[in-house]
Structures are given as structure tokens and as C-alpha cells.
Fold this protein.
Amino acid sequence: MRNPSSPVVSQRIHVRVPAKINLALCVGSRRVDGFHDLSTVFHAVSLWDDVVAVGRRDGRITLTMSGEGSELLPCDETNLAVRAALLLREQAGEPGLGADLRIEKRVPLAGGMAGGSADAAGALVACARLWGLDVPPGELLALGAQLGSDVPFSLLGGNALGRGRGERLHPLAGAVPLHWVVAAAPDGLSTPAVYRRFDELTAHDGLVPDSGVPTDLIAALESGDPREVAPLLRNDLQAAAVDLHPGLAATLDAGLAVGALAGIVSGSGPTCVFLCADERHAGAVAGGLSSARGVRAVQRVTGPVPGPCAAALPVARV
Ligand code: C5P
């Protein structure tokens, strides 16, 4: 795996990894392995965690974190970024490789925007470069899938259809920037808890989960017209997230009241995202939402933006 011409320790590798939102999250039934079959349209947005890897010669892998919610996260081997570095090193068969990882977080913690997955993706890419490992992009995506369902997309970025548990990716066309306002909640939600509530609510209401591919949304995304995209945004986890975090209903209403084209819970929540017509409109929506009850912070972002392994897969027609 090691490229013999590359040094084991280089000075400092810096990788930026974007957050994601799900423009559609179509959730099917719970599988025997506990995961749910999905069709999801991932969209990477301009909110990044920064991962820096600095070489060390004693074979230790350390982590320090700063920024958004970092004081609440462990820095030991239970952190997904450390697990990513350990997995890569094990794969390389070189237990002597070491690194100091530093992460500057901006993606809301437990917010449904794949911040933890972004950190794992950043650690994989930064350590692969630091250690001079020749890891083909497809192999990096496969390692990412071992770490979490969203990690492969964090590596790829852009727009992509995710199937399986979200790890089987087909990059999608649609490079016209969409403008969003992200409203972070004061606290987080547990992804497994939201999926469990989804199971309970669908069973209670006698609904049949449907993980069919949202072809209309994919076509609208290609057109790049936010007014076509807006009515097609869909999140099957939204009812479960709102049920567990009732304040989200007011946040979604507040975004529409200040003129957003549409608003949805991002992934398993509780972050809410609002689609806007253009940059100016996003400024007005952000201003209107900044004083809304239950909104901790408001940010304007655009998407799609590339991930650190953007060229790993060709764009597909779905
Ligand atoms: O893959 P990841 O570790 O991010 O998933 C976290 C949890 O979210 C899983 O343990 C599972 O409870 C839930 N999940 C799911 N179906 C998916 C993805 C995640 O049920 N497709």
C-alpha cells in the first residue's frame, strides 16, 4: 500500500471536509442487520470541518479538537476520526505509523449533517497523504463505509444518490449552486433513536416504508432551479425527529414565515435547512430566522461543494 518514494512523516497535511444535507431521505424497512434500506440524495454544503495531520515517529495516534461542540466529544479511540486513522494503519499493515490529528469543528454536533463522518473522512485522507499510502479512491470509500453509512459521501461530496444504508453512491449532475440557510438547534438528536422512532411511528400508523429512488427530485436538481427543487424536498425521518424534538415544528414554520421556498429537517436532525431563491434571499431568510425561538445559530451555505475525493467516481445517470 505504501508508495516507497513517499516519506513516512511529512510536515502537516490539511484536509477540509464538507457537511451534508439530504435533499431526499426515502427510508425503507429495517433490515436484519438493524440498518434501514435507503434512497437518499446527498448534497454537500459549504460548511467544513478542518482536519490536520502531523506526523509523529513513536507510532501513537492522538487527537485534539476545537470549535463547535468539541468539548462534548471524546478524543480517545472511541472517536470516529481516531478509528479511521487506526483502520487505515491496520489496512496498511504498518503499526509504526503515527500522527497527531487536530480537528477544527464547524458542523453542528449530533445535528444530522454528518459532522462525525466528515471528521472520519478527513482523518482517512489526511493520514493516507501523511503516511504516503497509495490508497485507490475506491478503497478509501470502502474503508469509509466500514466506519459509518455517511463516511463515503463525506469523502466524495457534490451531489450523490446513496442506496443500501447510504454507502452505495452514484454521483449526480447538478452543479448550479443552491442557497441555503442552516438553523442549528441548541442540542442534538441521536440518529439510532430517530430511526427507532421512525419504526414505531410507521408501525403505529400502518405505513409501508418506501425507499424508492426520488427521480423527480434528481431531475429538478439537474435543472438547478430552486423553485423546482423546493416542493420535492423530502425527509421520511422528519416526523420522528419532530416527535422527539417538538420545537422543530416551530423552527420549520418560522423559516416559511420569513419567506424560505421550503424547509426540512436535515437527516436525523435536529438541524433544519431552508432553501432560498438566491444569495440575497438567503440573507433575508437568515436575518429573519436569527431571532427565532429554538434556533441557536444561523448560517448561510451553498451546495454542492466537492469533498476531498471528489474525482473518485464518475457522474452517473440514474
Ligand atoms: O452508519 P452509522 O453508524 O452512521 O449509523 C448510525 C445508526 O443509524 C445505526 O446504528 C442505525 O441505528 C441507524 N441507521 C439506520 N439505517 C441507515 C443508517 C443508519 O438504521 N441506513
